[in-house]
């Protein structure tokens, strides 16, 4: 199988943008060090600062699942409980 691409969209509550941003930034180094992580890049919308997107590539679905069960993801979820208006995760395969 080719690599698995993830596009994760996080919309922070308007009054929690800086908290969510800080917690998302804290995920980067630990995640990039994980087995199977090809890239893990965080973006913030230029017109809507509450909208964050992770663009990620993983070597396998199993290693993505290990990431989602990691201690740093659990810490992020606890720290941002009630601060995120919406979260979507799309698993995608590059076709061209």
Automatic annotation (TrEMBL):
Keywords: Monooxygenase, Oxidoreductase
Keyword Oxidoreductase found: yes
Gene Ontology MF term list: monooxygenase activity
Secretion signal span: none
InterPro entries, per database record: ABM_dom (IPR007138), AI-2_Isomerase_LsrG (IPR050744), Dimeric_a/b-barrel (IPR011008)
Domain ABM: 4-96
Name of this protein: Antibiotic biosynthesis monooxygenase
Organism: Vibrio qingdaonensis
């Amino acid at each position: 199988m080719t690599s698995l691409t993830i596009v994760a969209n996080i919309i922070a509550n308007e009054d929690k943008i800086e908290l969510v941003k800080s917690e998302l930034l804290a995920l980067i180094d630990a995640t990039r060090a994980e087995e199977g992580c090809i890239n893990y890049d965080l973006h913030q919308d230029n017109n809507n600062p509450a909208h964050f997107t992770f663009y990620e590539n993983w070597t396998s679905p199993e290693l993505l699942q290990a990431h989602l069960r990691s201690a740093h993801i659990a810490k992020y979820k606890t720290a941002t409980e009630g601060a995120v208006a919406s979260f979507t995760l799309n698993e995608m395969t590059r076709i061209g």
